Every structure is written in structure tokens, then in C-alpha cells.
Amino acid sequence: MDGNLPVIVAVDGSPDSERALRWGREAARVQTAPLHIVHVWPYATAERAAAGEAGGDPVLARLRDEWEAAEGEAEPVFRSLGGLPDGVLPALGAEARLLVLGSRGRGGFASLLLGSNGLAAAGQAACPVVIVPRPDRGGGRRAEGERLGLGGPQIALGVDAEEDEPGAIGFAFAEASRRGARLRVLSGYTWPLLMPPAFEYLAAYEATQQEYEDALAAELAKVLDPYRRHHPEVEVETELRGADAAGMLVDASLESDLVVVARHRRRLPLGRRLGSVAHAVLLHALCPVAVVPGQATVATGGA
């Protein structure tokens, strides 16, 4: 990946976007990447957006005034763009190494767990997208930035042992390496296997659950092996269970700094949609969630 690609954070003046900015600022520091702070003005004219670049954007003007650069930190680039956020933000993924948003912005209903802009970006952007949730999600079981039950940083990675997920796996290993974090790899499966009556005679369906799990564990180890060899410094723990994968990841988010999932975008007659696991984790995880597209070159996060 081009090392000059920035971390792009979308802001709109809401507390959610301020949390996203804090997370994205730290991500840019860890990755030694430029930081771009973007405000999309809905229904803005080209002239209004141009005026925003010159300082007429009140959201960016306030951030500029309040910004205090840390020692050795480069000043961010402030960008004001016109258009509908659910269209502009996903398109920004083509020019970013990472796109960061809050779980909701100023629009929408207060009861929504995730805004439409976050869903659009996570489902369509060409780069990994990180959604930073509200700290009161899940009944406030963890405060902002707090991780429960562990003495060190942890990243949780959801992997389907039967799927090819180089983007998410590569991204998770690279992030764990950069952050000195333990990587917890979680994989769930369904048992008993659902099968049409016509195929009951197949030997593959006559395996016991333990035999099936052993076969999945061997496949999972095979998938992870090249990443473990490339990142021997990363401590890896794997957990394979006959359980709901999304539920395992949401539980792990209580004690993790980041949950990483593959996009698994599904093409439906009504348009593109996230896979069910990614969608559920985005709605319910208690820590930031990275949704990663399938291309390994896009998802390594600049490693």
C-alpha cells in the first residue's frame, strides 16, 4: 500500500464524530500516516464547499481553533466537501488507508445503534472502515477507551475457517504488530449441519461434531500459518466453537481494543449489503470495529 495514503476521519460536530477523531488521530500516529479530517456538507453547492476549504466551514473552523498538535505530530489536513455523506464518504475509501466514523452523527433517530453513513461506508468503501461506538452501548459496561479483564492490549479477529479472508486477517495481524497487542482469533460454526434429505447418504455428513471441529481447526491453522510466520512477534490465541460467530465477537469486544471482521458483502437485488456477521457486530460491539474488504493489498493497513 502507498505509505502516503492518509487516515481519513469524518466529522460533523457531534460527540460521536469527536470520539472517532480521537481514535483516528491515534491510528494515524501508530501508522505514521497523514491525518485528514473531513466534513461533508449535505446539499452544499460547490461554492459553499470551496468556501469551507478557506475557513467558512464552522465544524472545521472550531476543530482548527481547538487543535493542539502533540510533539512530533504533523498538522492534519482539513477538508470540507459538498454532497450527501452516504455517497461521498464511501468514495473517500479509494484515497485512504483507513476511514474512521462515529457510530452515528447528528442526523437520524437517537435510538439508532448505527447511522446510515456508517453502514454505507462499511459496505462500500475500498479501504478498511472503523466505526467507533458510543461508550453507553451495552448498558455502559465499559467506559470510552476502557478494556475489561486484561492487562494488555487485545485485538479480536473473526474468521470463517471455510472462507478466504486475506484482507481481514492481514489487517488484524498488522494492527496487532503495530500496537503490541495480543490477537484473539475467533471462529464459530453451526452444528448440527443442515442438509437436504437427498444428500443424507454423503459420508461428509456422517462425521461427529468433534471430527467436524477437528477438520475446521486444521483448516483454520492452515489459513493462519503464513500470517503467523510473517508476524512471529504477535501472540495469537485461537478459539473455535460451535456457536454464533457474531455473538462470540460481541462478547470479545468487552475486553478488546478493536474487533476486526471481513466485509463479506452480499449482492442482493436491492443493492449491496454487509454480511450478517459484520452487520451484527457493528450494531452491538462495545469497542471500535474494523470492517475490511477482501483485497489483501487494501487491508494490510500500510504494513
Task: List its traits.
single chain; 303 residues; alpha/beta; ten-stranded mixed β-sheet; two-stranded antiparallel sheet; disordered C terminus
Structure description:
With 303 residues, the chain is α/β, with parallel strands linked by helices. Helices cover 38% and strands 19% of the residues. The protein is built from eleven helices and twelve strands. The strands form two sheets. The chain has a ten-stranded mixed beta sheet with strand order 3-2-1-4-5-12-9-6-7-8, with helices on both faces. Strands 10-11 form a two-stranded antiparallel sheet. Helix 9 packs parallel to helix 10. The longest helix is centred in the C-terminal third of the chain and has 22 residues. The chain is elongated and about 65 Å long. It starts with 6 loop residues before the first strand and ends with a helix. The C terminus is likely disordered.
